[in-house]
Amino acid sequence: MTDVGSDAALLAAVGAGDLDALRELYDRHAPWLSVRLARRCNDGEVVADALQDTFVAIWRKPAGFHGDGEVAAWIWGIAVRRLVSRLRSRRDVIVVPEPPEPGSVPAAEEQVLVAVEYGDVGQAMARLSPQMRAVIQAVVLDGLTAKEAARLLRVPESTVKTRLSRAKAQLRATLAEGVA
């Protein structure tokens, strides 16, 4: 049984074949991964499959983490790639979200995400370059640190900070002039 330690220590134990260490990593990271993946895909089956694929990939190749950055950001990168892979393989499937129950109030987070996706902010974000949009997604919407986002996006941390600053300025200007 692996002692509860840092993610890096658990990952090293996974590399030595310790299944308990993988279970501990799963217990630590699966809940937030599931929530973040569900923000990108409303098909629970696809999210569950991507989550499972993520931890299978970690089990098969824990040495993929090279020790630079946060283990959580590395796991998130795997999860996003697995989700995209699953979605590409199911392009012909259209998922229609279930309507909310009558009288229920959507969670505040859901209201914000809908406003970001479909409101003025969503239109303003659509005007950003893909690189700036990715940084906003990672740092603002997903709550990653600049260091984690840098690892995920495979750019220097200073680049993340610069793009974030420029993206926020561009969003402010676009929203101030009124999105057309």
Automatic annotation (TrEMBL):
InterPro entries per record: RNA_pol_sigma-70-like (IPR039425), RNA_pol_sigma-70_dom (IPR014284), RNA_pol_sigma70_r2 (IPR007627), RNA_pol_sigma70_r4_t2 (IPR013249), RNA_pol_sigma_r2 (IPR013325), RNA_pol_sigma_r3/r4-like (IPR013324), WH-like_DNA-bd_sf (IPR036388)
UniProt keyword terms in alphabetical order: Sigma factor, Transcription, Transcription regulation
A Gene Ontology molecular function term of the record: DNA binding
One of the GO BP terms on file: DNA-templated transcription initiation
Keyword Transcription regulation on entry: yes
The keyword Transcription regulation is annotated on this UniProt entry: yes
Pfam families the UniProt entry points to: Sigma70_r2 (PF04542), Sigma70_r4_2 (PF08281)
Coiled coil (UniProt feature): none
SUPFAM superfamilies hit by this protein: Sigma2 domain of RNA polymerase sigma factors (SSF88946), Sigma3 and sigma4 domains of RNA polymerase sigma factors (SSF88659)
Domain RNA polymerase sigma factor 70 region 4 type span(s) in chain numbering: 121-171
Residue ranges occupied by any RNA polymerase sigma-70 region domain in the UniProt entry: 25-91
Matches recorded under PANTHER family: RNA POLYMERASE ECF-TYPE SIGMA FACTO (PTHR43133), RNA POLYMERASE SIGMA-70 FACTOR ECF SUBFAMILY (PTHR43133:SF46)
UniProt record similarity statement: Belongs to the sigma-70 factor family. ECF subfamily.
Name of the protein: RNA polymerase, sigma-24 subunit, ECF subfamily
Organism of derivation: Pseudofrankia inefficax (strain DSM 45817 / CECT 9037 / DDB 130130 / EuI1c)
